[in-house]
Design brief:
Layout: E1 2-6, E2 14-17, E3 20-23, H1 31-39, E4 43-47, H2 51-61, E5 70-73, H3 85-88, H4 95-98, E6 102-106, H5 132-135, H6 147-156, H7 177-186, E7 190-196, H8 223-233, E8 237-243, H9 258-276, E9 280-284, H10 291-294, H11 296-305, E10 314-315, E11 333-334, H12 353-356, E12 358-363, E13 366-371, E14 378-379, E15 390-391, E16 398-403
Parallel strand pairs: 1-4, 4-5, 6-7, 6-16, 7-8, 8-9, 9-10, 11-12
Antiparallel strand pairs: 2-3, 12-13, 13-16, 14-15
Amino acid sequence: KSVSAFVHTSTDAIFQVSSKKLFAKNNQVSPGALLLKIFCVKSITMTVPNLHVAVLGLLVVLRCGTSMSISLAESSSKGPYNDTWASLDTRVTPAWFMNAKFMVSLHWGVYSVPAFSAPADSNSGQHFAEWYWNNMGGPDGPDTSKAAGAFHKRVYGDTTYEDLAQNFRAELYNNAEDWAQLFNESGVQMAILTSKHHDGFELWPSNHSWNWNALDVGPKADLVGAFLMAMRKQGLHAGLYHSVFEWFNPLLYGPNPSDYVTQKLIPDLYDIVNIYEPDMLLMDGEWNHPSDFWQTRPFLQWLYNDSPVKDKVVTDDRWGNECRGKHGGVFICENGGFSAFCSGSGAAGTATMLGGGGCQRFCPSHVSWGKSLWSALPMQLLCGYCSWPCRVCREQETLAIMGGPTGRHRRSRGA
């Protein structure tokens, strides 16, 4: 009998066998041993996301001996969508999202330790506390000519940003139960947590981010898993924010930048979908390259056709630098810019197109989501260090509050 399997990484085996997921974690069973135990007497068809993984899988499987045959095949999706935007953009936004009126999105990570941001009227990006590593000068910092760099030098001296991960302990987290109860009592219907921001630190035990994830350093826990479990226990929809790029990942800026895509980005995306089954993927950080470079269209084809969340997952429009306001799921307007859709021209007049697309008016610590035109129903939201006006869409409107380290208003380290 042939068995179809997805093979994603060299250190963690994740397979789909007769629609059941099998996991090998923490080296309790090596991926090779797992393959040997399950598949040695079978003929295997392996559907792999890239050549690197295909070669790896072939080397492991060959350990089973000469009696085994293997066929490496391209992914053959049986769903209605192909990997073109013309096809992917026809997908309709799942109904649950159009009925979710109140959302909370949380930015949480190593940057929550310093929790510093410059005043909102400073240089671009300096007022985003989650941009702390970049703002303080990156790996060569601190750059004292920048507000974050001067703060870092004064408070932490020569301590690196990476060293701050040891102080990100989440000691007040309580497995997110308190958050989930508060959200539920407040009428929240959807909650999103960062699985990874631009610093590359993962809030889940990614096997593609050794010693730079919440299980290896800091909390020593799977923060994402606890978050999604707690939200669902309260009956809330739960999703994940995930950064496409990373500021200082050497793979992305090395001689073969595509290695970052095939060895980090895409395997991570497959893993968080297969393991956590999020209701929404809120992508960001795509602006340096088109979707062809990021290889996100084939991933979306799998996500919409064959993934365990194919019928419920909501996506945004940040899959490549040509996508904002044009391609993907729900359209996002960050601070009212970045696309013709957000500036009120282009697709704004036909915002119900493109898979039921929507709009989002985005401030550093709050967001308003919705569908169709965002030109009416003005609403002032004053929060943290952000006092810009946001507007809630009149049709199918959804209000979302985005929380994170709030600069001068911060001091709570643990939660």
